[in-house]
Design goal:
The chain is built from 40 helices and ten strands. The protein is mainly α and 965 residues long. An eight-stranded mixed sheet has the order 5-4-6-2-7-8-3-9, with helices on both faces. Strands 1-10 form a two-stranded antiparallel sheet. The radius of gyration is 32 Å and the shape is globular. The two termini are 20 Å apart. GO terms for molecular function: CP2 mannose-ethanolamine phosphotransferase activity. InterPro entries: Alkaline_phosphatase_core_sf, Phosphodiest/P_Trfase, PIG-G_N, PIGG/GPI7, PIGG/GPI7_C. Keywords: Endoplasmic reticulum, Glycoprotein, GPI-anchor biosynthesis, Membrane, Transferase, Transmembrane, Transmembrane helix. Residues 632-948 form the GPI ethanolamine phosphate transferase 2 C-terminal domain.
Length: 965
Amino acid sequence: MKISSSVFASFCLMIEISGIALFLRGFFPAPIKSSFSSKTKLSDLPAEPLTGNNPNSSTILVPLFHRVVIVLIDALREDFVFGAKGRQYMPYTQHLVEWGSSHSFVAKARAPTVTMPRIKALTTGSIPGFIDVVMNLNSPVLLEDNLLWQAKAIGKRIIFYGDDTWIRLFPKHFMEYDGTTSFFVSDYTEVDNNVTRHLDSTLKRDDWDILILHYLGLDHIGHLSGPHSSLIGPKLLEMDDILRKIHSSLTSQETEGSLPNLLVLCGDHGMSETGSHGGSSDPEINTPLVLISSAFKRKVGMDNPGTVEQVDVLPTLALGLGLPISQNNVGCLISPVFEHTSLRDQLRFMHLNSFQLICLLKDSTPNFQKEEGYEQFHFAEKSHGNWIKLYLEGNTSEVLSNLGRKVLRQYVDALKALSSALSKQLGKYDMYSMIVGMVLVLQVLMALLLAMPEALSRGAEVEIPLTSSLLSLPFYMLWLLCCSIHVLVCTSAGSSCYLCNLSWIPALAAITTFSAMLCVLLSMAGRKLASGAKTGTKNVNGSGFSELDVLLLIGTLGNVISLGSSSFIEEEHQTWYFMINTLCLVIFQDVCCKYFRERRNSSDDDSYLASKQDLPSLLSPISEQGIGSHKWLALSTPLLTLACCRLLRSLNQTGVQWMHLPDLSHWLNRWEHKAELSLLSAASLLLIFFFVQKCCSLVSKIALALGLLGVYSYRAAVGNVLFPWQLGSRDISKGTVEARFVYIFILGILFTGSKDLLRSQVITADSRLKSRGLWEVYSGIVLLCALLFRPHNLPVLACSLLIQTTMAQYIWKELQYDAAQTTIMHYWFGQAFFYFQGNSNNIATVDISAGFVGLESYLAIPAIFLTAFSTYSGPLLWACHLVCYLSSAQDSWNPASVGHGCYCFALLRSIPTVVYIILVTALRYHLFIWSVFSPKLLYEAMHTLVTTVVCIFFTAMDQNHIGQS
């Protein structure tokens, strides 16, 4: 069966996406969870350890605090409380930290530093799985043992106001609640006002025990304008005033003889230097934790805050409220909080925490007896029993006190060892699903490599021996073997995986696909070997690996090999910047060879100009009269590209090592430089119109001009840039009307382009109409990018269009680069512009504010689409430009150019994806697997999905041309 290269490439990528999804399902483990279905009850708590038969050991758990108020400020960085900003903008909190009855700590969150996983960590004490970063957009009900369930079970009355993620996680736990969406990041006032408006009336009431307030405004300001925004100070002052009001109310309500109240100030995560979060940099993981209560001793001066884990909050609050510790907790007690209690109570609390961790260790670790913490616990428990015996006998000597403090230290050591052992076991990899997914993507890569000569031939068709393979005896034998292996794995003792939990229909479909792919590969390889044996060396010289193929493999593999290092992943942008600079220098050399050296023979031309022997010349020889200006423009194009790339490198610092250094975007986004940013944005929008409008119809040109004007109006409405006609001050709005105004023109341009494409396919085979339709669709995509880009990133879009225009006019056609070579260049430039935008392999650099442009409220599908589009706009723009360019070339000189481009795009994406999956599997126990390698894996998966969509569009354009032919 013969199919075109584009159809073959798209089909391969769709299978690859399935393999990647299966691999991700097995790679990202579920967090450690107890296998017990029931939740811990007070009756399940162990008694105090005791040596002998004295019946006076205690099983009762007495609460230490009457009321607890938890103020969780989203994206509250450590330095916002303990640093210079805290001293300036949170004076009351700073006074409590330095001189009040409080304990202050730096609580370290674990990656991923996004809201939903962090709420899980605070309420269950467990470390959520990394894949929770995806589930953050749609939080499911939390069914595992947690603090709120325990509180409700003993009759505690809970009130909640704030982020509605809590309501989705705990839908039946609050006696009163009011939620606000956390995803509409343009709003940083109403989201907090909706919480504070309940505060005065609630604090006066006495019908509640736990009050949880989750403020979102600070996080939204960070997403909009970063941690150094002028809006940060007023927001921190607002939070400080709220804390003062709560603390005063709690203190005034305490009476002599009653239990003290507790005020907890914390953050779910921090904020990076760009205002986002999700990664593992210090500003993202270091959050303040301040516990304020009259039970604590008043300070005489602030000490440096100690460091605790965020999961340590759960056991501390649970025992402070007289609740059992959740089953899945891996945190340790924050011992200073219990210093005001008796030594017996402190030992009791330590024993309960250690006992819970031992139960979880036994349930999750087969060889738990070999763990260091297991031995330490039993030793501490035995010493604790001896102490209880002496205590109950009435011993009051100094020996008893010294022994008690010694037992405390033993428990602390045991807790640290147990928590460390459990934290290292983030989960168990589903190796069966990982191996099947890995083999699927490896099969796709082998198929693409075996089909290379046919896919890049003049006919651009690939022979797939599908029918003969499916009707062969080896296929059925292989199918039966795979079914047997599947049954064996799924019925083996202790095996539990995703594939085994599927019903037989999808499982058989996966096995059939796996077996068919392998048989097709074997058939293609056998046919290739037989063909090579018959033709001998002539086939090698005629259709073997060309210089282009060698360049493709060396460039791609060089980048892929570097991904085996965590440092190269963190600084991958440097690799692509180097490759782009090298490419520009090679192009400059080719231009010099074309215009300053005499014509060489055909073999020299093949070496320097990379022209194909089986392709006709695109252009006739340039006359002597016209060669002058053309020559100098061609010579200046790679140099201009180098200059643009150097400018864009300085615009956004990315990666890890230099992320903290100031760049042009920081300078432009300062309030005092708003005029400069406004001029730069306006100039960039003018350049965008100049480069895009050339190939559009008159109607599309007008719509594009009005749309770009609307882009500037939107940014001025939200306060990013200035209106040139603005005389006085203007209130900042959400810019919803202006953004929707632009969306209308985007849809209009896309509709016009799609209409022209349909007319060129159905009514008339007009290549000019088809080309115009493609460029109009491309202009609509450019307008959408301009709307979603922040103002300081508009020069990235303008420079991208400048390079595309000059390269297309003076380089790719003039030097007669074929479709495959042009595809490589587009792919490399797309990768480089991904990083020029300020993106990295860290989730924290994803600009989620782009997902809410023009939206009044959170809508999942539009928000996800806009965020993904904004993030991958660089690769998408260059891929769309490639489709437009190759389609015009297809109509003029090479009918197979689109098929070649689609195939090369699929191969360029498949090689790094497959190799990286193998690397990640081998490095799954690496120290940086969750902080560095896992985010990159998600980026690779998403990039492959984007490439699949692009290749399907390639295929549609290719099939249109075939149909017209």
